[in-house]
Write a structure and sequence with these properties.
The chain has 6 helices and 13 strands. It is an alpha+beta fold. The longest helix has 28 residues, at about 250-275.
């Protein structure tokens, strides 16, 4: 499995074992729904913070204070964060939450997980498989002005397992048809979602169409990501050809670099296949 880096529905809070409060007196718990999801169907993530001390606490619970550590079956890890706020600083006071002894605060975390509409570099989108995640809280990730006294520290939640099912044949066909429509009429194309689908799924029938989309819109780099993900060595030359027609030197250099990356990856795949035979 390789990480690809990619809406809340009704939240269903699962009954999960709580994280160890250790010496902090504050307990952080995570929940994710559904526990089994089709590829591209967003996961719903929530966090619960409980004050198990005998005194009241004031917690800073801005989105930026939470990180999500995701592990695959081989133990490879990636950490993603909620997008930073774009609100006015004056509204940050809404995220300073008082907790009485024994009280708990529950909220969803707006991190795009398994979401095809997330822009590259935002959230998390992976191949199918079994994963686990835990939430990491760090009060110091927020540097804005705040009231005092704020509880200061770091917390780690329980670990939650979930499964991502691979796309079935009907889903593969549906996205191929959407890609064909993009080629025919890019103005009505949901290009980001279609490209994200092919960033995580290989389809020989789609590779040439993806090249056509990049040639028509070289600044939409999600098409480039999708082409590289297909792993066809011959596409490296096609990307270089597209780069030769681009006037922007920075974009031209990026296309050339990704072409070289694709060529190296395809070469490694060939060596791996030869070794397995």
């Amino acid at each position: 499995m390789r990480y690809r880096g990619l809406v809340f529905a009704i939240l269903v809070v699962l009954t999960l074992p709580c994280a160890d409060a250790s010496d902090t007196g504050v307990v952080l718990s995570a929940s994710v729904t559904p526990k089994t999801s089709a590829f591209g169907v967003p996961l719903q993530l929530s966090v619960r913070i409980e004050n198990s001390t005998s005194t009241s606490l004031l917690l800073l619970v801005r989105d930026v204070n939470f990180g999500i550590e995701i592990s695959d079956e081989r133990g490879q890890k990636i950490t993603v964060y909620a997008p930073r706020y774009t609100r006015e600083r004056s509204s940050f006071a809404d995220d300073e939450v008082p907790l009485l002894p024994g009280a708990a605060y529950i909220r969803p975390l707006p991190v795009p997980l398994n979401d095809l509409t997330a822009t590259p570099g935002e959230g998390w989108l992976a191949e199918s498989g079994r994963y686990s995640l835990k939430i990491i809280y760090d009060s110091d990730r927020s540097k804005a002005a705040h009231n005092e006294p704020i509880w200061r520290g770091t917390l780690e939640s329980n670990s939650v397992e979930f499964d991502i099912r691979p796309p079935d044949s009907s889903m593969m066909l549906a996205y191929h048809e959407r890609l064909v429509r993009c080629v025919e009429d890019s103005s009505s194309c949901d290009g980001l979602a279609v490209a994200n689908f092919y960033r995580a799924n290989r389809d020989t029938a789609a590779a040439d169409l993806l090249l056509k989309m990049l040639a028509s819109a070289p600044y939409e780099l999600w098409w480039l990501d999708a082409i590289v993900a297909q792993g066809r060595a011959a596409d490296a030359d096609a990307i270089r050809e597209i780069a030769s027609h681009v006037e922007d030197e920075a974009l031209q250099a990026l296309l050339q670099e990704r072409a070289a990356t694709l060529q190296r990856a395809a070469s490694m795949d060939r060596r791996r296949d030869a070794k397995d035979r």
